[in-house]
UniProtKB/TrEMBL annotation:
Organism whose genome encodes this protein: Streptomyces phaeoluteigriseus
Compositional bias per record (Low complexity), positions renumbered to this chain: 39-48
Residues covered by the Glucose/Sorbosone dehydrogenase domain: 69-369
Record protein name field: PQQ-dependent sugar dehydrogenase
InterPro entries per record: 6-blade_b-propeller_TolB-like, Glc/Sorbosone_DH, Quinoprot_gluc/sorb_DH_b-prop
Length: 385
């Protein structure tokens, strides 16, 4: 398989940021793919037939799908049924039967070096999964963060169902904090990767670095055609720590991002956009930086996963221990954000659309900063509107 190695400058040591940081480390103890970018510019006019969701929504916890999970991070529903769940600290991928909650460990991803916020993070299915059975994973190794892909062969013995990893992208800066980690295939069939600046703030504005970016790649790891910077995987920059990626019904990309002392963000992503970090946190008076479409005080969010359903973006809060609803009209919020599940289930990490007005949400109470209760961590099924 074709591989691409991208080298980034890694610091010999990483200095922790100020104690007020809302990041996950501190502040909390088929259609053919289109070759061109799918998201439209933030603030662009929406289609005249685009409906505005109600200002107020609802959330109902339908059931607990599974419990007893260790540091769940990535979650990927299989088309044949079942949920793949990545354990950050154990470096394993587990198949969860979404009907019975039964857990089957598929195997351990070799090379995972779990420490601090690092470990086995996001997972995603190949856009050709039905034929190639490839599972993509983002993880922290001994030297960097990287993206690999592995064959999932259900015919192999339990515990040995993951093939040897093939490296798609390497050289993403790593640290004890701000490792990013969310990966997703977009409506264009291309791979989007959310990275963090690993505690080295200057990397976010350095377009030669892979840190503090959203990257856009072919499934083989090459810079995607139509990217804003020639021969570069960088799609947008000026990010602090991106852990949420989702597209709305019009194929526009949105990303959740940790702030430091003041503001956490939900951003509408445009190709080549500069989102300001470390020069700007939250909304800014400087026109060269893209403003978030919504922002929250750092004790209310610490956002990780995000998903689109029923006309709104739904964003998980770690330190905030709540689920945020952001109703959308185009790429702007059509009403004030609304909080649900506040404190009910502890820290919330990942949100995935389950179809039919439902979401799957994982808790994150065993990650070293939560207060785990009996049964943690869990996958919850929610009904939303």
């Amino acid at each position: 398989m074709q591989r691409r190695a991208v080298t980034a400058v890694l610091a010999a040591s990483v200095l922790l940021l100020t104690a007020g940081c809302s990041s996950d480390d501190q502040g909390s103890p088929g259609a053919a793919p289109s070759p061109s970018p799918s998201p439209t510019a933030a603030g662009s006019s929406a289609s005249p037939v685009e409906e505005t969701p109600p200002a107020k929504g609802t959330v109902k916890v339908v059931r607990t799908v599974a419990e007893g999970l260790n540091t769940p991070w990535g979650l990927a529903p299989l088309p044949e049924g079942g949920l793949l769940v990545a354990s950050r600290d154990e470096g394993t991928i587990t198949l969860v039967d979404e009907e019975s909650g039964r857990k089957t460990e598929l195997g351990e991803v070799p090379g995972v070096s779990a420490a601090g916020e690092g470990g086995l993070l996001g997972i995603a299915l190949s856009p050709d999964y039905a034929s190639d059975r490839m599972v993509y994973a983002y993880f922290t190794s001994a030297s960097d963060n990287r993206v690999v892909r592995m064959l999932y062969d259900a015919e192999q013995p339990v515990g040995e169902q993951l093939g040897a990893p093939d490296t798609v992208l390497r050289g993403i800066p790593k640290g004890m904090i701000h490792n990013g980690g969310r990966i997703a295939f977009g409506p264009d069939g291309l791979l989007y990767v959310g990275t963090g600046e690993s505690g080295q703030q200057g990397l976010s504005q350095d377009k030669e670095s892979l840190g503090g970016k959203i990257l856009r790649l072919t499934p083989e790891g090459e810079p995607a055609p139509g990217n804003p910077f020639p021969d570069s995987p960088v799609y947008s920059y000026g990010h602090r720590n991106v852990q949420g990626l989702a597209w709305d019904a019009k194929q526009r990309l949105f990303a959740a991002e940790f702030g430091q002392n003041t503001w956490d963000e939900l951003n509408a992503i445009v190709p080549g956009g500069n989102y300001g970090w470390p020069e700007a946190e939250g909304r800014s008076d400087d026109a060269k930086y893209r403003d978030p479409l919504a922002q929250w005080g750092t004790d209310e969010a610490s956002p990780s996963g995000v998903a689109y359903a029923e006309g709104s973006m739904w964003m998980a809060g770690l330190r905030g221990q709540r689920l945020w609803r952001v109703p959308l009209k185009g790429t702007v919020a059509s009403a004030d954000s609304q909080a649900f599940l506040e404190g009910d289930h502890g820290r919330l990490r990942t949100v995935v659309a389950a179809g039919g007005g439902k979401l799957w949400v994982t808790t994150s109470n065993t990650d070293g900063r939560g207060a785990p209760k009996e049964g943690d961590d869990r996958i919850l099924e929610l009904e939303v509107s």
